Amino acid sequence: MKVLIVGGVAGGAGAAARLRRNDEKAEIILFEKGQYISFANCGLPYYIGGTITEREKLQLQTPEAFRARFNVDVRVNNEVLSVDSAAKTVSVKNHATGETYTERYDKLVLSPGASPIRPNMPGMEDNHVFTLRNIPDTYAIYDHIEQNQPRTAAVIGAGFIGLEMAENLAHRGLKVSVVEASPHVMAPIDLDMAHPVHNYIRGVGVGLYVGKKCASFTRDAVLLEDGTSIPADMVILSIGVMPETRFLQGSGVELGKRGEILIDDQLHTSVADIYALGDAATVKNIVTGSTQVIPLAGPANKQARIVADVICGKNARYKGSQGTSIMKFFDLVVACTGEKEESLKANGIPYHKIFTVSASHAGYYPDGTQMVVKTLFAPETGKILGAQIVGGEGTDKRIDDLANAVRFGMTVYDLQEMELAYAPPFSSAKDPVNMVGFVGQNVLEGTMVPFYAEDVANIPANAVCLDVRNPEELDELGTIPGFVNIPVNQLRDRLGEVDLSKEIYVSCQVGLRGYVAQRILAQNGAKVHNLSGGYTLYSAYVKDQEGLADGELKNCASCGKQEKK
After folding, report:
1. Pairwise CA distance, residues 17 & 66, whole Å
2. CA torsion angle for 407, 409, 411, 413 (degrees, to 10)?
3. Which of 21, 6, 250 is nearest to 107 (CA)?
4. Cβ–Cβ under 8 Å, residues 128 and 222
5. Is 559 a catalytic residue?
6. DSSP secondary structure of 460-482
7. Which of 12, 49, 261, 485 is least surrounded, with the fewest CB atoms within 10 Å of its CB?
8. How many helices (H) and strands (E) does the chain have?
9. Long-range contacts of 559-565 (CB under 8 A, 24+ apart)
10. Which residues, including other chains, have CB under 8 Å from residue 534's CB and lie 6 or more apart?
């Protein structure tokens, strides 16, 4: 069996290695149009920022080592130009020699990846505009900083790579600004979870321009459509990627609207004996059932193993992706899994949402950080549909728990029963994931009726609004205008001050004391709503709406709370 593999990074190299483990006799040829294979895409920003100091660490395997270990004919600087599926051949150009040649296959695996979108915009040639996708891109950015010592930088696009680059450029001493055309950073999360992220970005001194589009460039600036000029001696374009599939024109391989390769759950394309995986191929979204591209390293590596097994006759299937992702930005961690609220709305999928605010470990153990968890679940069954976390330490293990919940169809009731590792330095006896389950059950059973920060402006004029925190908290942190303070510990004794015939809206710091107050009031005949996420989420919402005013407030880098200077 002769297998040709197009693309030598995560998907292609992984498929080649698994194929060899399955079949020692197969002839395997791996084509990579660049000079590197199996490199660490996700680590590239950290070399630029100086966290990774040795260039060779970015290469997980060299062509020579891969060839020696797996007996694979690795051909770097060899680009597949076209595929003739009828003749079962590919046309290849050797960029080192200029030669073009033809290679026959029994099986063909397509893992060409995706390339950064780089629109032709006025003035690009006047500035130093970079994209980041591979090792040569990384070296170009690093060397430019070393040789030219730029003082300012603009990052266009605030996805994972964009924000990671903003952090690492800041570590190199540059004054950095981030421009994002959408209303909020990081497309996989919702706007309400982006509020604390926006505040944090501003709080660490990075300029933030959301809902703004780049129009043109000058030698030392980025010009936005609204006329704003942002200082920028260099620019990183990080506005998305497009599948590298132009070479498939005329091959018979069916492509989607953006050039993505359409495949089934065994990674077959529309043409017999041709398979595809990775960033250029579609997957099934396990929550919505829709077909889409989810370009992540984890799924690509799993697909690599599966495609090799299928080629070798095993009944392996790829069951779909859920987009589990995580990012570090200075001391802030942002993570998500499954569907976001915006997508559920677009797909007509009903859901409940809750916000829980928890400490990363036991409150009495020092140096804990705060995490905000947004969880989306089905109204009838409580099945987990998606989750997002903004926090610090411990965010990674909580998103992994919630990712498993999405993957295996678990419910909020299952989250309550999760027996998770506990010791004071690591967690609380009621882990943040357990807390999601408890609050989710309360919502499903109607004992907790939530309202949200964006609903505050629409509270009925005749409603009773209570802030049940202690008075000193209001003095230090602020309160929602119009909310009357009755501490929860005094509420039973002061029920006579509350008109129980009116709707009541309750707020506290994170939602827990608000729930206690809700239960007291509801059992005395009132109709009560509790602010999900409490004043923590409301203040993040307001602060993001108003922007950060110099001399007034700054962000607490560890928890996102507002602190007085």
Report:
1. 8
2. -100
3. 6
4. no
5. no
6. -TT-EEEE-S-HHHHHHH---TT
7. 485
8. 14, 32
9. 559/369, 559/370, 559/392, 560/196, 560/199, 560/200, 560/332, 560/370, 560/372, 560/390, 560/536, 561/370, 561/477, 561/536, 562/477, 562/478, 564/476
10. 357, 507, 508, 509, 510, 511, 512, 514
- List of residues 6+ apart from 133 with CB closer than 8 A: 41, 115, 116, 241
**Which residues have C-beta within 8 Å of that of residue 247, sequence separation ≥ 6?**
6, 79, 80, 81, 82, 83, 112
Residue 278 and residue 501: Cα distance in Å, rounded? 59
Which segments of 112-174 does DSSP mark as H helices, in order?
135-148, 160-171
CA distance readout (Å), 165 to 41, 48, 82, 299, 407: 13, 8, 34, 23, 30
Q: Tokens in use for 419?
A: 């027996």
Q: Are 224 and 230 in contact (CB under 8 A)?
A: yes
Backbone Cα Rg of the chain: 26
Element (H, E) at 546: helix 534-546
Listed in sequence order, the DSSP H helices in 223-335 are 297-311
Q: Mean pLDDT, 10 residues at a time, over the chain (565 residues)?
A: 96 97 98 93 94 90 95 98 98 98 98 95 96 96 97 97 98 98 97 97 96 96 96 97 97 97 98 97 96 93 97 97 97 98 96 97 92 98 98 97 98 98 95 98 98 97 98 96 98 98 98 98 98 98 74 36 34
Strand, helix or coil at 229? strand
Q: Report whether 34 contacts 77 (CB < 8 A).
A: yes
Element (H, E) at 504: strand 504-507
The phi and psi torsions of 171 (rounded to 5 degrees) equal -60, -25
Beta bridge pairs of residue 359: 370
Query: In the prediction, which pLDDT does 285 show?
Result: 96
Residues recorded for the chain: 565
CA-CA distance, 457 to 502, in Å (whole number)?
18
Residues whose CB is less than 8 angstroms from the CB of residue 448 and which lie 6 or more positions away in sequence, other chains included: 439, 442, 515, 518, 530
Is residue 391 within a helix (H) or strand (E), and if so which, with residue range?
strand 384-391
* Among 81, 64, 82, residue whose Cα is nearest residue 73: 64
Please classify residue 350 by burial: count the beta carbons closer than 10 Å to its beta carbon, then call 0-12 exposed, 13-18 middle and 19+ buried: exposed
How many CB atoms lie under 10 A from the CB of residue 445? 9
